[in-house]
């Protein structure tokens, strides 16, 4: 009885929120199949493809299939990388369909006490309030610097935890407190461009050095960098996890914070955040009173690699420090590539560096398996994708594997560690590489 009632509620939710016109845009041509990592790594299981998932959504919406655990599993196992979208000749808005379906399912299904607590803590506190995130990472800093980490590793206590937790602990960077002041404007001596800097939640706490390097680079290129005080997490993790209302709340807070001053661009250095920020107008399409502001916000959103290329960094004299020679390769951030369609800019920057040889990673356009917190929830599929990726990474013989997103960076660090390449290769954010190894004149 309960299952039948759940099916009815989800069917009604799909009818209200999963747009039929978007479902019907799918022509079932199959162009998405070779672009889909879960399809390729599930022995070509059609239910793990975009085409198959759209068919399942439509079948539930039309009452042709009762909603059950297998359908939920199919939708959950999707990485949300959206590689299917640029591959689709019909322009199917798969990401929008997936988020709407997940939102209905999470709202209507009954959660266990453990799951309720985890979602409440993560989505209503950790990724909603930056101070909560700062306190959480403060515990990690204490763990790293107090000697507890060394003791934990020496005693082997981490072996009692799931292997992915032990692996992630090993590659987590040493955390430092962010030195970026919210509400402050970092002025440039040239002052040709004024930008607002989106610091992010993970970037501001786990990768604070990357944020500092971003501000310095932008100042060097003639930007006044304003850091809005009341900005919050972009909302991507909530939006991708079936918590669209919470994502909208974050979006509204960010729009108000960033449009308080007139700026030329709103820049970010995290591909996943940037994609979600650029789609605030879609997220708030049912809020007409906010739509114009959302459009203005999204139109000004830009990735750091696109901005610094616009500012002429590739026309400057870029060279590796100390006469160094190095081979570079690059792993795309899925959302930066597939949503914002930023492909050439980071490559152009790397190719313009004297002393650096750029080698294209054959599967750079395919997801690394990180996908936010996917690698923690669907570890088996994530590691299957990562292991395959590392075969191609190793073949490049690169000394530096660069990327433009924090989740991708941690995943590639993990891949390097698992593949035994730590003494040969380093994974870095593109901005950190420019700051540490490149003279920008």
Automatic annotation (TrEMBL):
Keywords: 4Fe-4S, Electron transport, Iron, Iron-sulfur, Metal-binding, Repeat, Transport
One MF term in the entry's GO annotations: 4 iron, 4 sulfur cluster binding
Top-rank EC class of the record's enzyme: oxidoreductase
Domain annotation 4Fe-4S ferredoxin-type: ranges: 14-46, 69-92
Pfam family, one: CCG
Catalysed reactions, semicolon-separated: glycolate + A = glyoxylate + AH2; (R)-lactate + A = pyruvate + AH2
Cofactor(s) the protein requires to work: [4Fe-4S] cluster
Manner of cofactor binding, per the entry note: Binds 2 [4Fe-4S] clusters.
Catalytic activity, EC: 1.1.99.14
Role played: Component of a complex that catalyzes the oxidation of glycolate to glyoxylate.
Protein name: Glycolate oxidase iron-sulfur subunit
Organism annotation: Allobacillus salarius
Taxonomic lineage of the native organism: Bacteria, Bacillati, Bacillota, Bacilli, Bacillales
């Amino acid at each position: 009885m309960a299952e039948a009632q759940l099916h009815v509620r989800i069917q009604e939710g799909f009818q209200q929120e999963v747009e039929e016109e978007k479902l019907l845009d799918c022509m079932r041509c199959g162009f998405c199949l070779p672009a889909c990592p879960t399809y390729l790594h599930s022995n070509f299981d059609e239910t793990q493809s975009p085409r198959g998932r759209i068919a399942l959504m439509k079948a539930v919406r039309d009452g042709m299939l009762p909603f059950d655990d297998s359908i939920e599993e199919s939708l959950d196992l999707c990485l949300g990388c959206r590689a299917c979208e640029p591959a689709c000749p019909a322009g199917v808005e798969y990401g929008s369909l997936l988020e709407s379906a997940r939102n209905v399912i999470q709202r209507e299904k009954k959660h266990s006490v453990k799951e309720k607590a985890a979602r409440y803590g993560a989505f209503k506190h950790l990724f909603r309030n930056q101070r909560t995130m700062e306190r959480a990472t403060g515990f990690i800093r204490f763990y790293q610097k107090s000697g507890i980490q060394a003791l934990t590793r020496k005693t082997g206590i981490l072996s009692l935890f799931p292997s992915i937790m032990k692996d992630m602990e090993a590659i987590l960077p040493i955390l430092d407190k962010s030195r970026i002041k919210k509400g402050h404007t970092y002025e440039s001596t040239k002052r040709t461009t004024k930008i607002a800097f989106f610091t992010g939640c993970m970037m501001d706490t786990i990768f604070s050095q990357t944020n500092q390097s971003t501000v310095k680079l932008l100042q060097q290129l003639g930007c006044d960098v304003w850091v809005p005080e009341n900005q919050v997490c972009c909302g991507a993790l909530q939006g991708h996890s079936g918590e669209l209302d919470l994502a909208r709340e974050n979006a509204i807070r960010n729009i108000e914070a960033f449009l308080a001053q007139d700026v030329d661009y709103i820049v970010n250095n995290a591909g996943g955040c940037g994609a979600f920020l650029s789609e605030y107008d879609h997220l708030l399409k049912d809020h007409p009173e906010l739509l114009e502001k959302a459009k203005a916000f999204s139109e000004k959103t830009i990735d750091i690699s696109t901005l610094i290329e616009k500012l002429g960094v590739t026309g400057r004299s870029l060279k590796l420090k100390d006469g160094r020679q190095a081979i570079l390769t690059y792993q795309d951030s899925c959302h930066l590539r597939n949503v914002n369609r930023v492909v050439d800019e980071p490559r152009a920057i790397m190719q313009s560096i004297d002393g650096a040889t750029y080698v294209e990673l054959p599967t750079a356009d395919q997801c690394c398996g990180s996908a936010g917190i996917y690698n923690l929830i669907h570890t088996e599929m994530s590691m299957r994708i990562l292991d395959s990726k590392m075969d191609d990474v190793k073949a490049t013989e690169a000394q530096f594997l660069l990327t433009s997103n924090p989740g991708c960076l941690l995943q590639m660090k993990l891949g390097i560690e698992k593949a035994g390449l730590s003494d040969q290769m380093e994974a870095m954010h593109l901005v950190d590489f420019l700051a540490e190894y490149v003279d920008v004149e």
